[in-house]
Design a protein that fits this description.
Elements (H helix, E strand, L loop, with lengths): L4 H17 L13 H11 L5 H12 L1 H6 L2 H8 L3 H10 L5 H13 L5 H13 L5 H23 L2 H13 L3 E5 L4 H13 L4 E3 L7 H5 L7 E5 L6 H12 L4 E5 L12 E4 L12 H18 L12 H16 L1
Parallel strand pairs: 1-2, 1-3, 3-4, 4-5
Length: 329
């Protein structure tokens, strides 16, 4: 009986790992023994990796839960590669094979917030049970995936990074925001929210082809918010590099530590994403910029007894009309 390609690949991967365990194959690299260590090492080595290994690197750093929970065959199919490539990728970073590297990801998941692993599995089960057809089926799949992305965002973003970003946004003379392609709606929303908080905000709009020239006016007293996801808008990357070179604080919203924005970020937010048939969801990044705006409001409204509030345009118009009537009276 002929073996399927998937089974053959899995068996080949297991044989290679067994050979490593017997000492028949050696790796000369030091062994990262925790999740942060392997991600930092992958980030450092990423420019030197082959295109195939770069594809795997992007997947494993952006989908640590999948790497922790799934089989090598399934992960390989998600990466659009062969299981043996995952084994070689793990060996590239000092592991005897993929299973040993996978243990690091499993340890990370085991030490996450209580119940997180169960929530992930429950959401995956919900997706697998989704037999609805038509538009309702599409809606269910989108909602379930967005719930998973939002839950992972909650686990991934540290309090200290939110606090540091809020301080930069509050103290900046001017906040410049760069976001193009599918990141443009996020950038526009953030400009709106910060403007309603009376921050001086400049959206580096590509219209007219002057966004990079506008960015040349940014000073170290300002702050740049750079938003970009794969496939990264080259103009946003160029603006970020120039700003960082001029000692401008950069708050980066992107998808991975391997993003070209990461190396120049003063504060880096890596936002979990999931592949969709049409695009990628904006639910998590929109939630994050809303949170940053509320954090800024909290710093600006420290004497307020109630929860921080971002006024709306309608409220401001109503207040202006009330002030006008008061002056006439």
């Amino acid at each position: 009986m002929r073996r399927s390609k998937a089974n053959a690949g899995a068996e080949e991967a297991e044989e290679r790992e067994a050979a490593m365990a017997r000492g028949e194959i050696k790796s000369g690299k030091s062994l990262p023994n925790n999740y942060e260590g392997i991600v930092n090492l992958i980030t450092m080595e990423y420019p030197n990796l082959s295109s195939g290994f770069q594809k795997i690197a992007r997947y494993v750093t952006q989908n640590p839960n999948v790497v922790a929970l799934e089989s090598i065959s399934l992960i390989a199919s998600k990466c659009d590669t062969h299981p043996s490539s995952l084994v070689r990728f793990a060996q590239e970073f000092g592991y005897s094979g993929f299973k040993e590297m996978q243990l690091v990801f499993q340890t990370r998941l085991a030490t996450a917030a209580p119940g997180f692993r169960e929530r992930v599995k429950a959401l995956e089960g919900e997706l697998s049970r989704n037999t609805s057809s038509g538009n309702l089926g599409h809606l269910r799949a989108l909602v379930v995936r967005d719930i998973a992305a939002l839950q992972e965002l909650l686990e991934r973003v540290p309090e200290e990074e939110l606090a540091q970003a809020a301080r930069l946004l509050t103290k900046a003379d001017t906040v410049y925001i760069a976001g193009q392609l599918r990141s443009e709606p996020i950038a526009s929303l953030f400009r709106y929210l910060l403007t309603m908080l009376h921050r001086r905000v400049v959206l580096l709009d590509p219209a007219g082809g002057l966004s990079q020239e506008m960015a040349e006016t940014i000073t170290p007293r300002d702050t740049l918010v750079a938003i970009s996801f794969r496939h990264y808008a080259q103009e946003v990357v160029a603006i970020t590099e120039r700003a960082a070179g001029n000692s401008v604080p950069v708050i980066a919203l992107t998808d991975s530590q391997l993003s070209p924005l990461a190396k120049d970020a003063t504060v880096l937010f890596t936002i979990p994403e999931d592949e969709y048939t049409f695009s990628r969801s904006l639910a998590a990044p929109v939630c994050l910029v809303q949170c940053l705006a509320v954090a800024v409001a909290a710093l600006l409204q420290q004497n307020r007894e109630e929860a921080p509030r971002i006024p709306t345009v309608t409220e401001k118009l109503r207040n202006r009309k009330g002030q006008g009537r008061g002056k006439r009276g």
